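Why run this: before we spend reagent on co-expression, it is cheaper to look at a predicted model of the complex and decide which construct boundaries make sense. The entries below are exactly what would go into the expression plan.
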Amino acid sequence: MKRIFNFLLVLTLACVMALCSVACDNGGTNDTDAGEVDTATGNTIVKIMFHVDEKSTEGQAYKKRIEAFNTAYKDRKIKASATYKARTVGAAGYETELLNNQVEGTLADIVTFDAPNTAAYADSELLYDITSLIPQDVQNDFYSLNTYKGKLYGLPIQESSAGFFYNKKIFRELGIDVSAYTVDNPWTFDQFKDVCGRLKNAGVTPVDMRIDATKDETATYLLYPFIYAAGGEFTSPDGYTATGYFNSAATADGFGFIKSLIDAGYTSYKIGVTDFFDGRVGMYLSSGWTIPDLDNKYKAVFASREDWGLLPYPKSVNAASATGSWSFGITNNHHSDKSAAKELLLWLTSAESSEAITTATGMIPARKAVNTDYEAGSPEYTLLKQLETSGRQRPVTVAYPTFSTCFNQVIAALGTGNVMELLNTQASTLQREMDNLKG
Amino acid sequence: MTGSALIIAAVFVAGFVGIAIYDIATSRRRKEKYRFGTVATAYLMLIPALVLAFLFVLLPILYSLGYAFTDYNLLKPNNIKYVGFDQFKKVFEEIGEKGTLYHALINTLVFVVGVVPLQIGLALLLALFVNKPLKGSKIFKVCFFAPVVISLSVTSFLWLQILSPSESGLLNSLLGIFGAEPHDWLRDPATAMPCIIVLSAWQGCGYQMLIFLSGLTNIRQELYEAASLDGAGAWRKFTLVTWPGLRSTFIYIIITVFIGACRILTQPMLMTGYQNHTVTLSYYMYQQGYSYRHVGYSSAVALLMTIVIGTVTLIQRRAFREKN
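The model came back. Tokens follow.
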């Protein structure tokens, strides 16, 4: 009996200690409307969560800007506290963390998010409406903004655009001249096919369109402009109708063009991920993030920029190119006073931060004020110019995750399937999801 | 959420304490030889296991059960509405319209039918092989068990290289020696699921091999000697001595492999992505619950899946028990 009593006593003490440790967990800070306040220093703490690994080049760039912010705002008693949650497959790991925080009510004051999620996050009130917080002149200085139903919910960190990287050596050897195809005078679908045909006839795999990259957002991001270029659409302007848009004749033309490239053997699902970099493929559809790779790696094939170049997206009815990158948004967490969060948001999206971050990532600055000074005809110039003239964002819809899956499923089955049948099936799936979300 | 968890915890604790008090009291009244202290100690010893079971088994099941009757969207945790059986209706509509859930059901069925016999058969063969007193059998044991301790993500990526559709892919380059054209193994609906079945059986059979091995060591040698004296060959010894001796081990293995196979998620997720020809029930639930954020709907699918798996497991147990 004595032993049981002793055991119960120890158990009770352990429970009391556990409860005390939970109760004391918040020690050192007070929660206020503006954010947590460090009781020792009096600093208002603004929490921010990034989607990259802290040790990555991009993560280090963010870290430096956060440190600079903390130095600059020391006297104003605002301190930024950052957490880094690296993306895993696609952005699933980060997204899961964000959603868990939303459920637990522990959202950071500022979060990063991928542009296509704007509608869903805004509609669910995860993101705070920052229209009135951000001065108009600042808003006007961005190439694009994260808006939903006319309200502003996020500011981009950097911009992205994609194009066709090509092996200049192969093109020179085969006498293929593509110098006339610029952003101001983009090549047409037919001209694109003509170049592919000449490459194929010479025994070179013409183009890696990344049609194999359907496990995450890559294929969607790189290929959606072809549908806009063919005059197609994915959803109605309000983002709640897919039938008649996703399976329209013009949309089918866009997907049909990609299928015709597969059928003709110009591109394939079987192209290895490094085949272009090993000099076995003529062209490679990718974003600005490939520029640092071509500059610094693969020196055996691409010794200098004389060996590779960048061509814009081809056009058909329209010219269209990929846009959209990650953005910063203030969350609708329990801190109702957003003034401190606003300061950090403006700091991280300032021209200075934009320049510092894009210098590290090789992407296009989100702010027009950043002096890019790209040499005319350079890959960076082509991407920026394309962004300004033909950049078009992915559909703004609360059902974006389903849209992305549907798009990927069409691309994955395009090699063997009938375009219209595939589009009808996926349009029906997407419409069901939209109806479901509309309630 | 914390509030509801506390209420469930309180009910659970009250139930546990009630049962414990009743048992202790009746043990005294029955004048059993167990002392009050012994019974009380036994219940106290149960507490750590019960706490873990409560946190990681009971609580998630109860929440999932509750969410299945709501429209819970992960982005709107503060706006959950009770919708009755609407989510279950949607589940059956999705199956009826041959949507993705229909494909997930068929694929899971194909996977279970393929992987359960293959994995168990492989495990048994390996166990019989390493059970022989041969030189180096310990090395074989380690080699066969190695895939089990390697993460599924790692083995999936390894197999992605083997099954790469390019000419330089390991399997394609091997077949290329015999003049075969490169094949896109994971994109072709005819070969994708068989590839996943083979990978999964290879990855998992090492564990079942060990269990079979422990079963084999429990079979008395005298039985084999007696069979030899009666003139039984290797096959007769296997069917008349080994197999009956492994029956209870086999029942355990078939049930655990079946349940594990029904829950397959990682391999299709990493190897093919969300495609109709490889999506499985667990992958479908993950996609609905996390990517599309429909926790309510996903919970309804999970609940139905649990009922189906539970029923089949009970049938399996009953079937094998009757034969015994």
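Residues 12-27 of chain A have pLDDT under 50 and may be disordered. The interface with chain B takes residues 1, 3-4, 7-8, 11, 89, 92, 95-96, 99, 102-105, 120-121, 123-126, 212, 214-216, 269-272, 275, 401-402, 405, 408-409, 412, 415, 429, 432-433, 436 of chain A (CB under 8 Å). Bring this page to Monday's planning discussion.
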